[in-house]
Write a structure and sequence with these properties.
The chain contains three helices and no strands. It is mostly helical. It is globular, with a radius of gyration of 10 Å.
């Protein structure tokens, strides 16, 4: 399932995803979304970021 960039941005703000991520990680998330990454892949990117905290 693909989601729009606007929806991903909304979800990131609503659920405070990537609040501790850096710009490189944030860009990676949105780049992968534009490439059509699955929600599972996007969640993995988010989890990788959380593990690095």
């Amino acid at each position: 399932m693909k989601i729009s960039t606007d929806k991903l941005y909304y979800l990131c703000n609503k659920y405070q995803w990537f609040t501790n991520g850096d710009n490189k990680q944030y860009r990676k998330l949105f780049a992968r979304n534009k490439q059509g990454a699955s929600l599972e892949t996007l969640a993995t990117i988010n989890m990788d970021m959380l593990r690095r905290l």
